[in-house]
Amino acid sequence: MEKKKVRKAKPSVASPKPPLPYVCVSTEGTLASKTGTWRFLTPKYQNKIAPCSEACPAGEDVESVMVLAGEEDYPGAWDKIMEENPLPGVCGRVCFHPCEAACSRNALDEPVSINALERFIGDAACVSGRKPDAPVQKRHERVAVIGSGPAGLSCAYHLARMGYGITLFEAEKKLGGVLRYGIPGYRLPRDVLDREIERIVSLGVEVMTEVRVGRDLAWEDLKKYAAVFAATGAWESLPLNIPGEEAAGVMSGLAFLKKVHSGEKADIGERVAVIGGGNTAMDAARTAVRLGAKVWVVYRRTKEEMPAWAEEVADAGDENVTTLFLTSPVRIVTERGKVSAIECIGNILGDPGKDGRRVPLPLNGSNFSLKIDTVISAIGEVPDMSFLPAGLQRDSRFLSVDGTGSTALKGVFGGGDMTAQPRTVAFAIGSGKRAAMAIDAYLTGNDAADALDAARVGNKGALSMSRYRSRDGQAQDVIAPSDLNLAYFKREKRTPKGKLPLSGRCEDFAEVNLGLSREDALREAKRCFNCGVCNLCHNCLIYCPDLAVSARPDKQGYEINYDYCKGCCLCVEECPRGAISVEVGK
Ligand code: FAD
Questions:
Q1: Which of 42, 44, 326, 347 would bridge with 586, disulfide CB 3.0–4.6 Å?
Q2: What gap in Å lies between CA 514 and CA 499, rounded to an integer?
Q3: Angle at 264 between CA 262 and CA 269, to 5 degrees
């Protein structure tokens, strides 16, 4: 081993002490020394928009909801959601939760279970029978809403809350659109849907079911309404365009689901092929499994390209649905006019097509047949716009609306799946709210585009009804994860989603996803960073070397004494949630 070198200490020599440097001494104390004049950077408290709120197509103030839930104020959290979205129990189950994809916790560990918390809050309000506030001021105008899916329900709700008289026209027996006749009960129990719809109607909405506009009521009859909102969805299934599709035993995904959810008997036999890879296909497949069939999903691309929600695809696999990837149907084989088999061909993926997705190319000689009793075609739906009057612009697939939801006809607005927007429940709810704002602006003689601008939440199209109604021009800055100080947050895994055990799951339509317990709901709410919003953690006050930060007398935040803040911006650095901004040269 190498020997450690030991430095010998030099003998100390008494030397004269160096003279002390000159020091300024004030006889008046530090208060006299107003160091604020040195400042080049100015810290300023400024709450910002959390990325989850910006990403919510329904425009929910997710961050505020999390704060209230973290204080176990679930009624308050519910009220907060209801300012923006009348269907929390529904969305807490079926929304694809872009809020979670945007959650800043992704930069540390896993996103907060915002979706499951929304369900918890919605269900807690259902149990307690909580109701939304009735409108304070009544207006004399009546508005017609056509279609009672999430877009129509949202528009009716927000306008009713603003005091307008609403008549809601629905072609079917019951309200809800796809929520009732498309999405199966094992994903969205009907008692949850019924309770949330009942609360919307209880605001005084006049409901006209089994009235199909264009068949039972002429468009001209709507002239007595001050404005019209059309949201009739997309219910016409695209054809397969293969021989044999006229045979008995071939049906569209939505027609099949509607039949089952209307309580009618759907005679599908023992072997079912579902064509398509979207949500309708997954719902049809899992529903057919619950009716006792063996199910094959035939999808022309690979799992990675499937448009269906990944969780749905996984659940379908768990429930014994077999998916034939890279496979297209070429012919439906019939016997005495009834489906007996389906002939398919294998594909390979070619170059990307016009939509950017790789085009499936048939592999010659790879044909095979599958013995089948029923073919369910779920390759896409388009709107039926035959009831709309001349003068409305539409292409073959959509009703055209501008950024406020206005159509080419004055006083006529559109939204939801019949317009060109992502086909999700949250987008439909957002479009109904947007139309409610635009209709209110139209009926009060205001510019809709300006009014909507004031209601924007960030830059992704979300609109806030509370901003619209208060017109307080709140800040638009969205906090980025890089603006947070993640050192202050503990890593903590999110609560795993509970599901019904597989054995016996498919014997009925019982809800598969289980909700959060009260304990887990609180734990999840507390995992929220509260991005961009001061939560009185005191860090700014503790770290300020100039003692320039003090708590406000009303305890609603802090104030900075700029006479003494010399702009070191330690407070900005140490604020965990980025609630302090910096201005240069002020
Ligand atoms: P719809 O929900 O389609 O409602 C339109 C309503 O208008 C219907 O009730 C219809 O009967 C009525 N109507 C039609 N014509 C007339 C007329 N002339 N007069 C009067 N009434 C009329 N999105 C998600 O976010 N999560 C999911 O899990 C999900 N699952 C889905 C599963 C299926 C099977 C399908 C088909 C879609 C799913 N979606 C999902 C998409 C989502 O349901 C839709 O984007 C949403 O329902 C669209 O709402 P909407 O109000 O525009 O239309």
A1: 42
A2: 5
A3: 130
What's the rounded mean pLDDT across residues 345-365?
Answer: 92
Predicted pLDDT of residue 26? 67
Cβ atoms of 416 and 150 within 8 Å: the answer is yes
| DSSP string over 132-157 | PPPPSS--S-EEEEE--SHHHHHHHH
What residues form DSSP beta bridges with 375? 250, 273
Q: Which two tokens stand for residue 375?
A: 């073919």
Query: Which residue matches tokens 């939509």?
Result: 355
pLDDT score, position 36: 86
CB distance 151 to ligand 1 below 6 Å: yes
pLDDT at position 1:
40
Evaluate: CB of 87 within 6 angstroms of ligand 1: no
Average pLDDT over residues 151-178: 97
**What distances in angstroms separate CA 394 from CA 33, 400, 403, 428, one per listed residue?**
70, 5, 15, 18
Query: In this structure, what DSSP letter does residue 487 have?
Result: G
Pick from 94, 172, 232 the residue to mutate for probing ligand 1's pocket: most ligand atoms within 8 Å of its CB. 232
Residue 135 pLDDT greater than 90, yes or no: no
Q: Where are the extended beta strands (E) located within 29-89?
A: 41-45
Question: Is the Cβ atom of 148 under 6 angstroms away from ligand 1?
Answer: yes
Q: Is 294 helix (H, G, I), strand (E, B) or coil?
A: strand
Distance CA 117, CA 91 (A): 10
Query: What is the β-pairing status of strands 294-298 and 322-324?
Result: parallel
DSSP reduced 3-state for 94: helix
Which mutation among 312, 425, 431 tests ligand 1's pocket best, with the greatest number of atoms within 8 A of CB? 425
Q: How far apart are CA 470 and CA 465, in angstroms?
A: 8
* Of 448, 439, 527, nearest in space to 161 by CA: 439
**Ligand 1 centroid distance, CA of 230 (Å):** 12
How far apart are the CA of 254 and the centre of ligand 1, in A? 10
Three-state SS string across 385-410, please? CCCCCCCCCECCCCECCCCCCECCCC
What is the tens place of the pLDDT at every residue in 433-453? 999 999 999 999 999 999 999
Amino acid, single-letter form, for residue 357? R
Question: Kind and range of the H or E element at 228?
Answer: strand 227-230
Q: Is the CB of 412 under 6 A from ligand 1?
A: no
| 5 has pLDDT over 70 | no
Whether 387 is in the pocket of ligand 1, judged by its Cβ within 6 Å, is yes
User: Using CB atoms within 10 A of its CB, is residue 269 exposed (0-12), middle (13-18) or buried (19+)?
Assistant: middle
> Using 50, 70 and 90 to split pLDDT, how confident is the model at 545?
very high
Compute φ and ψ for 550, nearest 5 degrees: -140, 155
pLDDT above 70 as % of the chain: 96
For ligand 1, the distance from its centroid to the CA atom of residue 93, given in whole angstroms, is 16
What pLDDT score does 289 carry?
Answer: 97
Q: What is the pLDDT of residues 50-63, one digit of tens each?
A: 999 999 999 999 99
* Residue 156 in contact with ligand 1 by CB distance below 6 A: no
Q: Is 231 in the pocket of ligand 1 (CB under 6 A)?
A: yes
Which of 91, 192, 222, 279 is the pocket-test mutation for ligand 1 (most atoms within 8 Å of CB)? 279
